[in-house]
Design brief:
- This is ABC transporter substrate-binding protein.
- Belongs to the bacterial solute-binding protein 1 family.
- Keywords: Signal, Transport.
- InterPro entries: SBP, SBP_1_CS.
- This protein is an alpha+beta fold.
- The longest helix is centred in the last third of the chain and has 19 residues.
- Strands 3-11-6 form a 3-stranded antiparallel beta sheet. It has a 3-stranded antiparallel beta sheet with strand order 8-7-9. A two-stranded parallel sheet has the order 1-2.
- It has 2 domains: 198 residues, D-Maltodextrin-Binding Protein, domain 2 (3-Layer(aba) Sandwich); 192 residues, D-Maltodextrin-Binding Protein, domain 2.
- Strand 4 and strand 5 form a beta hairpin.
- Helix 2 packs across helix 4 and helix 9 packs across helix 10.
- The protein is built from 17 helices and 12 strands.
- The chain is 45% helix and 11% strand.
- The N terminus is likely disordered.
Length: 440
Amino acid sequence: MKNQELRKYVKRGISCLVAGMMVIGMAGCQSQENEAGKTDDSSQSVDGPVEIVYWNQWTQEDETAFLEKYIEEYNNSQDKYHVTFLAIPFEEYTTTKLATAFATNEAPDIFECSPAIITQYLDAGVCEPLDDIITEEIRADFTDSAFDTVSRDGHIYGLPLDSDLVALYYNKEILAEHGIEPPTTWEELKEAAAALNTDDYSGFTFEVDKGDWQCFTFYPFVWMQGGTLFTEDGMANLNSEEVINALSLWKDLLDSGNCNETPGRSVSDISILTNGETAMQINGSWSVLRADPEKYGVVPLPAPEEGGNSASVSGGWNVLVSNQSSEEEIAGAKDFISWLWLNVDHVKEFDTEAKFSYSMRNSVIEAGEDIYYSNDNAAVFSDEVISTAKPEIALSGEAKEIVSTMIQNALYSMSAKEAAEIAQEDMLKYQEESGSVFFG
């Protein structure tokens, strides 16, 4: 796809979620990107190194400290390339910032995508193949499915970094004071939320705001019933009994008044629990090192009924290179990500010290085995949660909007069944017109 056609495509809507906001952001976009290190001038001064710009969403202190340390080390190790990075808050990064940058041809040279947003960038044709740096030896070190999401037409476009899981975190002291055990079923979850809810903190917090994180945490409630959002042949299954049941559970929890409807930030942020704003919170494996295991516990997501199965979702971030960059910038981007993200010791440190996540690379898991059992909460993820996880559904922007709207409709404006029926009709229409299929 030629650059002119590409820009037209992306402006037309690289994601339905950001379409309405892109017009607002255009006027200030150029200056914003320039502040991040990408300029309209040549990427290389007459005598200086090629400037490489890296964007990601790693905003936690330990994450940014890791990147600062190793980017400085890389820059000092050679004089051909100079890397700078910008860590952008998750919601801004996944909705407006990255999409607008590509729409205006001001994209970073290196960027990251989760399965929730990667399809739109692969569909837009803005990613550079990485086959030349992912050797057969390296490929064999990853799990069998590691490259499924980032591959198209026999080419690999992304380097998998991690695999994140979700479970239920809880405040041990608050539950003990109320004589409540961590819930193991949907009914127990409702009862615990009611018993724990006070004027000082909510009983339970889950994501009530529309977006990627809400979809991510919703999927397991369908899967743990044995259901799917799409059939085996990839077509919509959104009006199935299992989807309606999951929507009904979330609606019941919200309508009860026992949940935190205005957390003020994404529920992917564990500080909602650790700051004392809630007694229980759905959150991810990345928070294991941020929630003191003496004060906070973890259990698998509650099952539909006693003796039933729990489920989790496995999602993670992939490093990609923009093909809007010059040949020199692409070469530098590949050199840097090879140096940083194909180094087992670097990845192990990032996944087990800067954060807590499960690498899809076998050698990294082996190197970090002690960390994956370093405390009780880590052991819960390693022994109980990871075995129940299914891969996050990689949806197009249009398909994700339909699923997101379905959840919001069920929470706020109509019955779960009505929301599911509308979403089913909309998804089938979209799939018939686009030829898209999805799995999960």
